[in-house]
Amino acid sequence: MKLKRYAILLLVFPGALVFPMMSMAHSLQDLERQCETARERYIAPLRQDVINQCIADRESGNRGSRSSRDARQHCERFYADFGQGGTTQQGGFRQRMFHNIPQCQAFYDAERAARPRR
To answer: Does 104 reside within a domain?
Structure first.
């Protein structure tokens, strides 16, 4: 009888630990998705402006001579990651655009709170 009790506890207790972590992971994913959606709303018009300027420069001959179809493809491909962070040619770091909006701060705070403390 005592063995059955321990077996039941071993089956129930790990589930009690796993389920809250799973729900936390889902809420973190939701917060991250909200952050990225909000960032994209801010970045999309800026990206389109940069692409349009690139196309105008290429078609006018300021930046190489290409057909309008080639210019559009080139500029859209070149600026596809506009607003994302990364490294510079000199090896420095370029911060993502709009990483400090409230939706992203909520995600960063929740992510920080979910990390185990040392």
So the answer is: yes
Question: In the numeric block, which tokens belong to residue 74?
Answer: 């080139």
Beta carbons within 10 angstroms of residue 91's beta carbon: 6
**Cβ partners under 8 Å of residue 42, min gap 6:** 97, 98, 101
Could you give the number of structural domains in the chain?
1
Q: Using H for helix, E for strand and C for coil, what is the string for the chain?
A: CHHHHHHHHHHHHHHHHHHHHHHHHHHHHHHHHHHHHHHHHHHHHHHHHHHHHHHHHHHHCECECCCHHHHHHHHHHHCCCCCCCEECCCCCEECCCCCCCHHHHHHHHHHHHHCCCC
Which of 71, 77, 73 minimizes the C-alpha distance to 56?
71
What is the chain's Cα-based Rg?
Answer: 24
- The model's pLDDT over 8-61, given as tens digits with 9 standing for 90+, comes to 544 454 444 444 444 556 799 999 999 999 999 999 999 999 999 999 988 887
**Is residue 18, in this structure, part of any structural domain at all?**
no
In a domain, 9, yes or no: no
